[in-house]
Amino acid sequence: PGAGAAAYEALRQAMEHYEEAEKLRPAGNDDAILRWNTCVRIFQRNANDLRPLDEEPRLEPQLE
């Protein structure tokens, strides 16, 4: 538990850095855009597992 939230936060931070890098990039260098897009694809492929900590599924006790 919590690994999805940690990955979510790390990817969001990376995306923020790529957004800043895009503003500073030399003409023709699309690396920051491509890496930002990769983060989006990771989110899309793992939508059920990557969530902010406050959206982690809660484990409910099971009655037997």
Terminal Cα separation, in Å?
23 Å
What structural class do helix, strand and pairing data support?
mainly alpha
Number of structural units classed as domains:
1
Mean pLDDT across the residues is 86
Query: Any idea what the radius of gyration is?
Result: 16 Å
Low-confidence stretches: none
Order of helices and strands: HH
How many β strands by DSSP?
0
Write the layout of secondary structure elements.
Elements: H1 3-24, H2 31-45
Could you explain how this protein is built, in words?
About 60% of the residues lie in helices and about 0% in strands. The protein has two helices and no strands. The chain has helices spanning about 5-25, 30-45. Helix 1 packs antiparallel against helix 2 (about 30-45).
Give a concise summary:
With 64 residues, the chain is mainly alpha-helical. 58% of the residues lie in helices and 0% in strands. The chain starts with a helix and ends in a 19-residue tail after the last helix.
List keywords for this structure.
single chain, 64 residues, mainly alpha, 58% helix, 0% strand, elongated
